[in-house]
Design brief:
By secondary structure, the protein is of the alpha+beta class. The protein has 16 helices and 26 strands. It binds ligand EPZ.
């Protein structure tokens, strides 16, 4: 049965039947909380009619990447941890499933999660779940620290580079663990048969995940650990804040050196997951790309400072009041087309790699040519081929892309495109908002991994976007 055919109209019921989610958001949220029956997993799509101006206010959800590492850290804690503002995403649901596979008890309701790991009876989380997300691998730190051993499959996640785990392995060895990689799994145990021992480790480069995992491991090691050349991302600070609230002794989060004095036990604590800076950045770029004016909250302006600088240089107007940020690129406000700019992605506080694909879309609508250099991941240009299908004029050489602006021939026109990873996928949605005609995007499961209710939020702002879920005709 040809499922790739266009949306079905009622008269020909012989073909599969698409449900269109553009008027009944309550139905969608119902579907989110249940594992969809097999018939419903057949490649949902977005269709976007481009050219609509956006306006109004959009709520920003809790940070996916902070929530994932904090959920992993609950394994370090005795008693119950209570998390507020956990975004309802397939990634956070997968993380919950990983914790449950170890024996943790989890309750979730409306963004609140209660996690109790006292019942953990396994040190080998579900390999299938680990294979779905990168963040799942972070549990190796708390498991080794609390139980003295761990067996964790190699992680999955976005296909944007080789993404090895050598820094995790060498860092855990520096904390007194025997660590072996074999059969697609990492097996680790405390060399002294009891627990980890404080030590010194310098990361070759400031890996976010390795920093977070080694920080969690060191929190329950015997003695003091010094981790240098660590990541300074806000998510690292959010994790350190949760661990400190749970009784850990972590100093230096946000700088390039962490000092951690190990404790025998940590206790459950309560925390609010801070807002997602990448989601906020994505909506800021949506406003600029559609030449609109929108506001959003909560946003921590310092978390998106790099993007603010670039958008101001391009000619946008940006105002921040407390935790509300407003971006305007309305032609009357800016008086001329936006100017292109060059970007070089870097670890925080540099320009975030997770906003690189979305920024490329903006640059195709600006004046002038722009250069985007990706330095964090060696294979994060996969979205370019799909953007070219939408009329973007982009040349790629290795990890550098040259983007031709509007007057140099880029003219976004609708087409059928495929999302192949999270941020590359959302860049296609932003391009669809600006493209002439109706764009169809498949593979949107990638986007649902990291954006909560993206289509509903965009409709709130006036976008014409539909979520189509094909229903296989009853057998
Ligand atoms: C985190 O990934 C985020 N994911 C990523 O967000 C984000 O792009 C990335 O940090 C950089 O900001 C989560 O937090 C779950 P890294 P992570 O380790 O920790 C190399 C999104 O879209 N490396 O900082 O996996 C690695 O290959 C995702 O939300 C090693 O060589 O990123 C990469 O080139 C995508 N050896 C570089 O470091 C190691 O042992 C940076 O990766 C570890 C990493």
């Amino acid at each position: 049965m040809d499922l790739s055919s266009s949306t079905l109209c009622p008269q020909n019921l012989t073909k599969p039947y698409f449900i269109s989610f553009h008027k009944q958001p309550h139905i969608r949220s119902h579907l989110q909380f249940q594992t969809p029956p097999k018939t419903l997993t057949l490649d949902p799509k977005f269709t976007i009619t481009g050219g609509c101006k956006l306006s109004g206010h959009v709520p920003i959800s809790g940070s996916k990447n902070s929530a994932l590492s904090i959920l992993a850290a609950t394994l370090c804690c005795s008693g119950t941890s209570k998390l507020h503002g956990v975004p309802n995403l397939s990634d956070t649901r997968t993380m919950a499933s990983i914790l449950r596979s170890l024996g943790a008890e989890i309750e979730a309701c409306n963004g609140e999660m209660w996690v109790n790991a006292d019942g953990v009876g396994s040190v080998e989380p579900c390999p299938e779940d680990i294979g779905k997300i990168r963040g799942g691998f972070f549990v190796i730190g708390p498991l080794l620290a609390r139980f003295g051993e761990a067996v964790v499959a190699l992680p999955g996640g976005c296909d944007i580079g080789t993404r090895p785990v050598d820094l995790y392995i060498r860092g855990l060895r520096a904390l007194g663990a025997i660590v072996e990689l074999g059969d697609g799994k990492v097996r680790a145990q405390a060399a002294n048969g009891r627990g980890l021992v404080g030590g010194r480790f310098k990361l070759d480069h400031p890996s976010v995940g390795a920093t977070e995992t080694l920080m969690m491991a060191a929190c329950m090691a015997d003695g003091v650990t010094v981790l240098s050349n660590v990541a300074k991302e806000p998510e690292v600070i959010d994790l350190a804040r949760f661990l400190t609230g749970s009784g850990a002794c972590v100093e230096g989060a946000g700088s390039d050196t962490l000092y951690i004095k190990g404790k025998n036990q940590l206790h459950g604590s309560e925390c609010v997951v801070p807002p997602d800076r990448i989601e906020a950045g994505t909506f800021m770029l949506a406003a600029a790309i559609t030449r609109s004016s929108i506001s959003m909250s909560p946003v921590i302006p310092s978390h998106v400072a790099c993007l603010i600088d670039k958008l101001l240089a391009a000619g946008c107007k940006i105002t921040c009041a407390h935790d509300t940020l407003e971006v305007s690129a309305v032609p009357d406000d800016v008086g001329h087309n936006l100017q292109g700019f060059d970007v070089r992605t870097c670890p925080f506080p540099g320009f975030p790699t997770d906003l690189q694909p979305q920024t490329m879309v903006l640059l195709t609508t600006c004046d002038g040519s722009s250069i985007v250099e990706e330095t964090v991941f060696e294979n994060r240009m996969g979205h370019v081929r799909e953007l070219q299908k939408l009329g973007a004029r982009i040349r790629v050489c290795g990890s550098t892309a040259v983007i031709c602006g509007k007057e140099k021939g880029s003219a976004l026109l609708s087409s059928h495109v495929v999302a192949k990873d999270l941020r590359g996928g959302v860049s296609l949605v932003l391009a669809g908002l600006a493209a002439e005609g109706v764009t169809e995007i498949s593979g949107i499961a990638h986007i649902d991994r990291g954006y909560e209710n993206l289509d509903a939020k965009l409709r709130l702002l006036g976008a014409d976007i539909k979520r189509l879920i094909p229903l296989a005709s009853p057998l």
